[in-house]
Amino acid sequence: MRSTTETAITLPTDARNRCFALVDCNNFYASCERAFDPRLENKPIVVLSNNDGCIVARSGEAKALGIGMGQPVFKCRDIIEKHGVLVFSSNYTLYGNMSERVMNTLSQFTPEMEIYSIDEAFLNLSGCDHLGKHGDLTEYARHICATVKQWTGIPVSIGIGRTKTLAKVANRIAKKSTRANGVFNLMNSPHMDKALEWVDISDVWGIGGRSTKKLKAYGINNALQLRDIDDQLIRRQMGIVGLRLVYELREISCLSLETCTPIRKGVTSSRSFGRKIESLDELKEAVAAYVTKAAIKLRKQNLAAQILTVFLTTNPYSKNDKQYSKSVVFHLPAAMNNTVELIHYAMQGVDKIFKEGYKYKKAGVMLAELIPAEQIQTTLFDLSNTKRKNKLTEAIDVINDIMGSGTLKYAIQGGTRPWNGKSENRSPRYTTSWKELPTAKAD
DNA sequence: TCTGGGGTCCTAGGACCC
DNA sequence: TCTGGGGTCCTAGGACCC
């Protein structure tokens, strides 16, 4: 059993001295469509998901008609027809392109920024807040908005705060309040409590449907109440993630700017079928196609996968059908990004988890434990259990001498003894990776 | 060198984000 | 009749390991 003190949050040294701006494109996909067709200005438009099944973006006019985010199209067919809402299939190439233009523009305004999603970026404005008065930062943000609009045609809103979460809150207000008119600044704000009170808890970054329900049962309805919640209560109800979130609302920054995008942890390719599929052959065909797509993504990013997962699911909305979902994981013998090899394993996976008599609605593959493609290695020997280790490493050295160093690489595992000393000395155990002979030392 | 409680892996599910 | 796709992180129990 863990006590709450053990899981206290370690704060960065400048946790109280930061300034973030969150720049968020307004109705991004809809705005992209508009940027290329001015006739769409002031008209209600929506953009659909991959299979044209759900609504994934709406212009302001479409929102005003009551069309919800993520709504299935068939459920708002009436509104669409009645009001002549213009419907677009999604065009991710276009959106990706426009996103790049927006981000390039933003990079002019700060040396440090985090591209958070296709239509959002956090800017580091630390240090800017005391350059002048509250108003100057706001003016600066307005200048950014105007420039982005002018250079890309995309309208953006900006929220400013001491933490990322507060920048998000501010952004929400920037968008919703007509007074704010696209920019809202929560730095040194006399309106902090009012602003937080105005924001419904479900609109706070990190509070989803489940947590909203839970917290409302405790009478926590807005961001102000959430900020002032009892630490123990939020820790119990939402774990360490919830506690961190509350700190952030208290102007204590726990989430840092991630300026360089880390290597992806996985690549997924999956799709819902237009109809239910019952035959193994059809499933295999589909999965082979997904693997092909995923492998292309991998190679584009110059990565290779060490793990492959295949999954199948039935349709959770069909209450009358038997439900089934299953996945299988393969640890690949070596990192790879070759389509043919990957398909081979994926097909084994489908064979393994396919069960006759079920109607499948969705399938996919996920490639994980990604490494840079140039690190693809082939295992020739496993020396861990051989007494001839020295002979073999000598032989490898000779080959490297003749063929050039690094022709053959080898991994050395050094292990600290797990039961030497007290428990705090046991972990982490130390293992080396692909390197030249390291002298292993646990630290 | 020694051994028990602690580490790691696996699986599945939950929650959230855009 | 028709309900997205691609991500991230956290948690928890059981097996297994030494």
Describe the protein's architecture and organization.
The longest helix is centred in the middle third of the chain and has 21 residues. This protein is α+β, with helices and mostly antiparallel strands and 443 residues long. α4 packs across α5 and α11 runs antiparallel to α12. The strands form 3 sheets. The chain has a 5-stranded mixed sheet with strand order 5-6-1-7-8. Strands 9-12-10-11 form a 4-stranded antiparallel sheet. Strands 3-2-4 form a 3-stranded mixed sheet. The structure holds a DNA duplex (18 and 18 nucleotides).
Q: How helical, in percent, are the residues?
A: 25-40%
Distance between the termini: 27 Å
Q: By helix and strand content, what is the structural category?
A: alpha+beta
How do the strands line up in the largest sheet? 5-6-1-7-8
Instruction: State the total count of DSSP E strands.
Output: 12
Indicate the mean pLDDT: 86
Low-pLDDT segments: 1-6, 413-443
User: Per DSSP, what share of the residues sits in E-state strands of 2 or more residues?
Assistant: 15-25%
Question: Largest sheet at a glance?
Answer: 5 strands, mixed
Using the alpha-carbon principal axes, give the shape.
globular
Can you count the helices?
Answer: 13
Summarize the helix and strand pattern as letters.
Answer: EHEEHHEHEEHEHEHHHHEHEEHEH
Instruction: Give me the Rg, rounded.
Output: 27 Å
